[in-house]
Write a structure and sequence with these properties.
single chain, about 700 residues, mainly alpha, two-stranded antiparallel ribbon, globular
Length: about 700
């Protein structure tokens, strides 16, 4: 308390108020500022705090010192006095605590304070001195020459700073204060510097934790590897290096470290090392597998299952099954191992064998929900819905209060048209607040499939969960339009906008679509033009507005809108296709338009950008251009195969005109009959205009 007394009595003591009340945060800031201004006193205070109890005499609290840091920094000017105090005042001894060595002090806190603050005689005249001057006099006048540093000692120390083999407490305090102030680079540098001294395991762990938090993985790995090289017998460092090497994709070093660990203890748990390190790229997965192959993992479940997973990834199930069996021999009822084996068996065994294996594992672990769910989903993948439903009902009875099981059972009931079972399960699910909206949504679906539309509307209008409400209201709109009630449909959208402003753009587009479908195109365009001023960069509204504009009469406005959209999202293929269609509608030989459309049809089906509908629309655009140039064979080449697989009215009409141009009457009659049967072509007022939004 001496230090705090000095702090508040000095000129730098802060009288802080906030709205008439004392601010604790400001007080702490003031104390921290005072600590930084009086580093010598801070050192004595920190020492007192560390040695104030017998527990602290032999144990350094690692809670702030055993977690995360880069370059070595030495602050000689600030550490001269403190190193001298440590060398002259304290005697170190080393205490072994498990694998971590902690530094203790022989002197008790009472002896320390007695030496640092000796009692002043009654004859000393210090009444007129402030606390700082009194402390300086005590330090200079003390007769305990063994424990107090005089000015000559300080001067000598300034010339030749003493080197400490153990970590400097002052440096660690400085580092921790720096980290608290957000000066991470300085904290990392100090911690890393001190970590390479003797008996600095706790410091290394703190340095590494900071490094993991603020450095990149490569820097953390370099620090950990360098420390491990200096401390080769420190086993935990092997684990750190192995994990960081895996994260840094240094698989050669990772394999070397893992092999060292397994030679030390073949059955050690490697699960913590392997968490979050599974490579995402094929090349990294292959490199990791090559690094692990030479390691003997027969007795290590964690490594065996990692090998099995990689081999399964590379379609080597016969070898993978050997490794997963080794893992299961160690942990036969560990569910992730069981399900991985099931995944591998699905590649090499018939479905009946896989179901039998999962069934046996489930019977051994009757209270494990995951095994029930795995078997149920596998049965659903096999299109064995009735078997899955029966197993779900069994699981529902066993896990009576499990909402996930109840929901899945209800959904499967809907799929197999067991509506009575679905409604019973969903009404029960509605009693769980977290699942209330999902229950209402699927009750609405159930009522819809039973043609009870008013009941369906009631349920769907009750859905208020944000990720379900838009889909629910769209269905309500469809019900209203089914009855020809356009105004009610629009009111539903208006109400949705009021309740969920986030869906306003989507509801405006839906409203415009309704108006357009009911031959009110001018109203739809006016609506989107008006709301586009309210949402000037909303792509959904801008694109819908562009689609309502005429390719020829509104060419300039539409081109401007589409150019703006492509600037907002250059990778959007719908914008590119619409722009290509605009160009070709005004010039059937536009090179830019043809190039854009061909770019879309050249995207392979296994490309993530591939979209079947856009692909077909692009073919129609190119076929239309070819038809205008009387290149009938090119039209057939573009569209015949797609029409056979996925017939559409527009594609059929373009093909019909191409066969008419070639004079192939037999093909014309056959295609015309197909169009009449599929699309009532020629029987109603149908056009081949296609809506792209």
């Amino acid at each position: 308390m001496i230090f705090f007394g000095l702090l508040f009595q000095s000129k730098l003591a802060l009288q802080l108020t906030y709205d008439g009340q004392f601010s604790i945060q400001a007080l702490l800031n003031g104390i921290m500022h005072g600590l930084r201004q009086r580093r010598k006193l801070t050192l004595l205070l920190a020492t007192y705090l560390c040695l104030g109890t017998s527990a602290h005499a032999n144990f350094v609290d690692t809670s702030p010192l055993s977690y995360v840091p880069d370059t070595a920094v030495t602050d000689t000017a600030n550490t001269v006095f403190d190193n001298t105090v440590f060398n002259n005042t304290f005697t170190y001894n080393t205490v072994q605590n498990n694998s971590t060595q902690h530094t203790g002090f022989h002197k008790t806190s009472a002896e320390l304070m007695a030496s640092a603050f000796p009692t002043t005689s009654a004859s000393d005249d210090t009444s007129s001195l402030d606390n700082n001057e009194r402390l300086q006099r005590r330090l200079s006048d003390s007769t305990d020459t063994d424990n107090v540093v005089n000015s000559d000692d300080l001067a000598a120390s300034a010339l030749v700073p003493p080197e400490l083999s153990e970590p400097s407490l002052y440096a660690l305090l400085d580092a921790e204060f720096a980290a608290d102030r957000g000066e991470i680079d300085r904290a990392l540098a100090l911690y890393k510097q001190q970590a390479f001294k003797e008996d600095a395991t706790a410091v290394f762990e703190r340095a590494l934790s900071l490094s993991l938090r603020y450095d990149n993985v490569d820097d953390s790995l370099q620090f950990a590897k360098t420390w491990q090289d200096q401390n080769p017998d420190h086993v935990p460092a092997w684990f750190y290096v192995a994990h960081l090497a895996l994260k840094a994709h240094d698989y050669a070093l990772a394999g070397e470290s893992l092999n060292r660990i397994l030679l030390y203890d073949p059955r050690t748990d490697l699960s913590e090392i392997l968490i979050g390190i599974y490579p995402t790229t094929t090349s990294d997965q292959r490199e990791l597998l090559e690094a692990l192959q030479p390691i003997n993992s027969e007795q290590n479940a964690s490594l065996s299952v990692l090998k099995a997973g990689l081999l399964y990834q590379f379609n080597e199930p016969e070898v993978a099954i050997i490794h997963i069996d080794r893992a299961l021999a160690r942990q036969p009822d560990y569910v992730p191992f069981i399900t991985l084996k099931a995944d591998i068996l699905r590649k090499i065994e018939p479905a009946k064998r896989v179901i039998s294996y999962i069934n046996q594992a489930r019977l051994r672990n009757p209270d494990n929900k995951s095994l029930y769910l795995y078997e149920i989903r596998y049965l659903l993948d096999l299109k064995q819905s009735q078997e899955a439903w029966q197993l779900l009902l069994e699981a529902h009875q066993r896990f009576d209060d499990d909402a996930e099981i109840t929901l899945l059972a209800a959904l499967v009931s809907l799929d197999i048209e067991e509506y009575q079972s679905a409604d019973r399960l969903l009404n029960r699910l509605a009693k769980t607040p977290a699942y209330l909206n999902q229950a209402y949504y699927y009750l609405g679906i159930s009522a819809e499939r039973q043609l009870r539309f008013e009941q369906a509307k009631s349920y769907l209008n009750s859905v208020m969960q944000e990720d379900l409400v838009l889909a629910a209201r769209k269905k309500v709109v469809d019900f209203e339009l089914l009855n020809g009630n356009v105004d009610a449909a629009i009111k539903t959208l208006d109400k949705l906008r009021e309740q969920f402003a986030v869906f306003a753009p989507e509801t405006y587009v839906l409203q415009a679509n309704i108006l357009w479908q009911h031959h009110r195109a001018d109203e739809a365009l006016q609506l989107l033009t008006r709301v586009s001023r309210q949402y000037p960069d909303n792509q959904t509204i801008l694109f819908a507005r562009a689609q309502l504009l005429d390719d020829r009469n509104d060419y300039i406005v539409k081109r401007t809108l589409l150019n703006h959209l492509q600037a907002l999202d250059p990778k959007n293929l719908s914008y590119k296709l619409s722009y290509a269609q605009l160009l070709l509608s005004n010039d059937q030989n536009s090179e830019q338009g043809l190039a854009l459309a061909k770019t879309i049809i050249q995207i392979r089906f296994d490309d993530p950008r591939y979209d079947n509908e856009l692909h077909l629309q692009a073919l129609n655009v190119l076929a239309s251009s070819a038809l205008s140039n009387q290149n009938y064979l090119q039209v057939i080449d573009y569209l015949q195969a797609p029409y056979d697989v996925l017939p559409t009215l527009r594609s059929g009409v373009l093909l019909l005109r191409a066969y008419q141009g070639l004079g192939d009457n037999e093909k014309v009659d056959t295609l015309l009959e197909d169009l009449q049967e599929r699309f009532s072509f020629g029987q109603q007022n149908i056009t081949d205009r296609i809506q792209l939004y």
